[in-house]
Design goal:
By secondary structure, the chain is mostly helical. Helices cover 81% and strands 0% of the residues. Helix 2 packs antiparallel against helix 3, helix 2 runs parallel beside helix 4 and helix 5 packs parallel to helix 7. The protein is globular, with a radius of gyration of 19 Å.
């Protein structure tokens, strides 16, 4: 390995261990705690449900914080572009599966969202040889609406505002529609990226 190669490798390593990426890793670490709290509550809407709400809220805040820091300090890395959406999908996916397993969210909604999410993630890796597909504005909006819907679902609504259960359902329907729409956009973008990469090669 030459000196320049060694410097480049060291730089890449330090790029991974910046604050935004560490916050992304923290979000991944929070996922099993969130899962455990929600399972421990078992739809009883007690103290463990509130613990799940807090864990979910903290995880979502790290998502906003790491993005703000990465952009303001010019710390956007390829690792972050890949790891950030994966962290989001782990958190969102585990929440959807658990809510459906607990009988609080229809399985068909969870299945449609997960097929889109993991399908697009697989697509990102498939076209990564031609370039990295960053999150689009529509993708970010999708994440926000999904987050709001899930947050409403995990709140112990029955204990203080039962009417919000219906609100949570319709917000989730909107999230599903945006999820499908942005999924189609990503597929089109991947096709264009692959075509451009093949022409360049």
């Amino acid at each position: 390995m030459t000196t320049s190669e060694g410097s480049k490798a060291g730089s890449n390593s330090s790029d991974i261990w910046n604050l935004p990426n560490i916050l992304t890793m923290l979000r991944i670490v929070l996922v099993p705690f969130f899962v455990w709290f929600l399972l421990a509550d078992n739809s009883q809407h007690g103290i463990w449900r509130w613990a799940a709400v807090v864990a979910f809220a903290v995880a979502i805040y790290t998502d906003k914080l790491d993005g703000d820091i990465a952009r303001s300090r010019n710390l956007v890395t390829n690792f972050g572009k890949i790891a950030d959406p994966i962290a989001d999908k782990l958190l969102i996916g585990s929440a959807l599966v658990l809510l459906s397993a607990l009988g609080e969210l229809p399985w068909w909604i969870t299945i449609l969202i997960l097929v889109r999410e993991w399908g697009i993630t697989a697509l990102r890796f498939f076209v990564i040889r031609y370039g990295v597909m960053p999150a689009s504005r529509g993708g970010k909006l999708k994440t926000v609406i999904q987050t709001v819907a899930i947050f409403l679902y995990i709140l112990p609504l029955n204990s203080f505002a039962p009417w919000l259960v219906s609100v949570a359902f319709w917000v989730m329907i909107v999230a599903l529609a945006i999820t499908v729409w942005t999924g189609v956009e990503y597929v089109i973008g991947a096709v264009k990226l692959r075509a451009a990469g093949r022409r360049a090669a």
